[in-house]
Amino acid sequence: MNAVVLLSGGLDSYTAAAMARADGFDLYALTVAYGQRHAVEIDAARRVARALGALRHVVLPLDLSVFAGSSLTGGGEVPKGRDLDESEIPSTYVPARNTVFLSLALAWAETLEARDLVIGVNALDYSGYPDCRRPFIEAFSAMAAVATKAGVEGARFRVHTPLIDMTKADIIRRGMALGLDYALTHSCYDPSPAGAPCAQCDSCRLRARGFAEAGVPDPALARLGA
Questions:
Q1: Structural domain containing residue 172
Q2: Domain containing 193 — which CATH number?
Q3: Mean pLDDT value of segment 214-225
């Protein structure tokens, strides 16, 4: 069985892809270079794809920074030290990002005659993005059924979200049980030119909290000498 997995280079997408591999899927990995300021994650995605044994890894350039709709693509400063329980959607939200990414994954899956897409969205330890929630995934799945040749001919596309109801600590524990090397991953929204994490953005703090709650050190920090 083939599955197209969205691979960012972060620990969530790495774990979701590994879970799909453990379920017997052969992986086709898709990474979108969308003009993000944290482009160091592209290198992390390449490391992760190799570690997972992906049959193919496509890094697709699609520069969303032309819209300047997010602080991740140059539209302002990345917020630091934000209350992680705050309900307001932060400026790091990239408009329609997961809709765009899943649409690209769907197009590739249809070409491969694959029917399974994997995305590492999480609706618990996250920054409140609307496209990380179950209603969005359900709506996208319904759209795939009517927006593709395969769908109207009776094929059923499945969007797998194995992490959606897991805490960051649970995700890390699951990954460790699968033997994943989280030193390969990158999470920071605003890293230094050398790739060191800022330790203050939402993603850094959620990652740090996850490793602390899992009771293990973050191996990526050791790799960077932090």
A1: 2-224
A2: 3.40.50.620
A3: 81
